[in-house]
DNA sequence: TATTGTTATACTCTATAACTATA
DNA sequence: TATAGTTATAGAGTATAACAATA
């Protein structure tokens, strides 16, 4: 109740002093939470990454899948699903997409005829290289000369938050 | 081509040595990117936050909206949409949800009869307090005794990444 | 003519259940 | 019976176009 108790219906300080847009809203409370900053920052990163990958015909998840398949040739879909933290059911269309573009192949595993081994094609390996280069540029843009030590602190903090959800008292 | 070139179809080292699950997949390349760590960590934070808010009948976005309305009583929907970075169209159902639960009220603005001023009800203010307490607990769980200095470094880094998208050479 | 709130719609992402073929 | 891959589907989240009321 601190908004000048006169009778005149003050039309909101924020609404008055706007020259172009209207971001005169205080998010001070939310700024007290690290999760809020993580979300806002990640939104920016995600948007830029998707723009970066669009010319290559990749999305964030198809890019991640391609990288993991090149780095772990022969892995099975269920392993990839676990690594990407997506449901097996949802991984199917992702792998479909990569296979349709001849970036990877689904190869029957002789020892377990239920499973498919995922392997990159030469085209897949080539796109992998191009995508990595593009994403390196994206990261450089996002970090914009951030000190290496700061980066490492952030990575350690993120890893710690992620690991915290895995139970276990074994320190890393 | 480093997988023991014998004829025997080696069934993938990862697939062999699994005791319980199958996370024997290397994500070393992706780990070189800070964005990857941000995503993985934020997934954990988001999941835990939603679990934290569920008993209060709130989702991340309705919680954020409630906080901004309590902290900025009288703000208009378009301002809230801008602050939350969601489309006005999508904000409608969010505000509907809060209004239906009598946590906020939509009050006609006399000076601009197109707009609604959003104000918290006493119930809204009460839930705000309960939600903040719950989220403080959530953050403490996520950060698990992280040093204050580390937290500040992370927040500054996140802010910098977010701000980087706003153009401008004025350093902060 | 532009803006606020609104409706309708579509597209992506994600989560779940159930099916098939193998084990 | 359990598992790998698949299908279908439903629920969120998000983005766009168009409309009525008002400026």
Short description:
Two copies of one chain form a homodimer. Chain A is mainly alpha-helical. Helix content of chain A is 58%, strand content 10%.
What can you see in these coordinates?
Two copies of one chain form a homodimer. With 172 residues, the first copy, chain A, is mainly alpha-helical. Chain A has a domain at 26-142: Winged helix-like DNA-binding domain superfamily/Winged helix DNA-binding domain (Arc Repressor Mutant, subunit A), CATH 1.10.10. The first copy, chain A, has eight helices and three strands. In chain A, strands 1-3-2 form a three-stranded antiparallel sheet. In chain A, a hairpin with a 2-residue loop joins β2 and β3. In chain A, α3 (34-53) packs across α7, α4 (60-71) crosses α7 (122-143) and α5 (77-84) crosses α6 (88-100). Chain A is globular, with a radius of gyration of 23 Å. The N and C termini of chain A lie far apart (50 Å). Chain B binds a DNA duplex (23 and 23 nucleotides) through residues 59, 61, 76-78, 86-92, 95, 112-116.
Unreliable residue runs of chain A: 1-23, 168-172
Annotation field: number of helices of chain A = 8
Annotated CATH architecture of the domain at 26-142 in chain A: Orthogonal Bundle
Oligomer: homodimer
